[in-house]
Amino acid sequence: MRIVNYSKLLNAFWEKRIVCTLTSCEADMYYYLLKQCDLGNWANPFKLPTKKCEIELDFTRKTISNVRNSLQQKGFIRFKPSRVRGEVAEYEIVGLDAFLEETQTETQIGTQTETQIGTQMGTQAKEKAKEKESIPPVPPNKEKEKEKEKCLNRQLCSDEHSSTNRRTSERKKAEKEYTACHKGRLIFEAFYLNLYGEPYYWQAKDAKAMNSILKKIAYARSHRATPLPVDDESLLKAWEEFLQRIDKAWIMNNFSVNKIDSQYNEIISEIKNHQSSTNNGKNFRKESDVPRYASKDAYDTGFGSSRR
User: Fold this and answer.
1) Which one, out of 67, 139, 273, 296, has a CA that is 20 to 30 A from the CA of 305?
2) CATH number for the segment(s) 2-102
3) H helices within the chain, ranges in order?
């Protein structure tokens, strides 16, 4: 490939331009010819239709004829006009060869590299072919054994994967079954069945309410003057006792986990009030918790039943 040293070419043009005066049309024509020569990979001389010059330079044919004659007289170009119809004019940039550089080094390096790579690849391919030819064929029995071994390994991997998935599923199921929420659900469902004789239809919102109730019970037990244990077993026992103490008519007529959760504070208040009225009705001495007896004779004898 040939390239032109534009820096040298332009310097030479301006040095010559100082000596030879050029009109703007002549300068345009010269640079236009350089562009066309570049498009043709700097083939010099080159052919160029006059009609193309007219269109792209917006010159008349007479102007083109005058300009190129002037450029030739001043030593910038040489040209051969067309003599017959259909013939194309030929142009030559004077002194262009002095500024052209052959990319011999790049071509040589590229050729050498391609040759070396091609040679190396060919050599390597031949060596691999020889190595392949030198490898003795595997006996059929050994091939069958290898295939059996692969199948066995695949089966073992599949079995191990299935076993792992099964263990994971069982563990998740066990974790789900033995949570405090699940145990609380079983307690409630058993209580509901015993109370109404019908199974309780458990819903997603009931699970959320069950967790909420256990948290409220845990909070109440941990914030007493003397805190009570809040482990799962203690909470579940408290939950079972809590169910047995509910006697609020509205709740009993709308008995559900969700309703109990939403009315928790009201239920606690009613239980406390009920306990207070019951204790007040009992005939115990407040200061010593000693029962009062039905009569003086009973007290004197130390026997008898206290008023309950």
Assistant:
1) 273
2) 1.10.10.10
3) 6-19, 24-39, 50-57, 61-73, 104-134, 140-177, 180-196, 204-222, 232-245, 249-253, 257-262, 264-281, 296-301
DSSP code at position 98 = G
Distances (CA, A) of 217 to 102, 130, 212, 239: 95, 83, 9, 8
Taking the C-alpha atoms of residue 46 and residue 161, their distance in angstroms, rounded to an integer, is 76
The alpha carbon of 60 is separated from its chain's Cα centroid by a whole number of angstroms, namely: 66
Rounded to a whole number, what is the largest CA-CA distance in the chain? 161
pLDDT tens sequence across 211-221: 999 999 999 99
Placement of tokens 């939403």 in the chain:
262
Question: How buried is 260 (Cβ within 10 angstroms: 0-12 exposed, 13-18 middle, 19+ buried)?
Answer: buried
CB-based contact 260:251 (threshold 8 Å): yes
Residue spans of the domains in the chain: they are: 2-102, 180-297
Q: What is the pTM of this model?
A: 0.37
Which residue's structure tokens are 């032109």? Answer: 4
**291 and 306 Cβ atoms separated by less than 8 Å:** yes
Residue by residue, what is the 3-state secondary structure of 11-62?
A: HHHHHHHHHCCCCHHHHHHHHHHHHHHHHCCCCCCEECCHHHHHHHHCCCHH
Strand, coil or helix: what is 144?
helix
pLDDT tens by residue, 130-180: 666 666 555 556 677 777 777 777 777 777 677 777 777 777 665 555 788
Give the angle subtended at the CA of 205 by the CAs of 204 and 207, to the nearest 5°. 70
Burial class (CB in 10 A: 0-12, 13-18, 19+), 33: buried
4, 99 contact by CB (below 8 A): yes
CA-based radius of gyration for the chain: 55
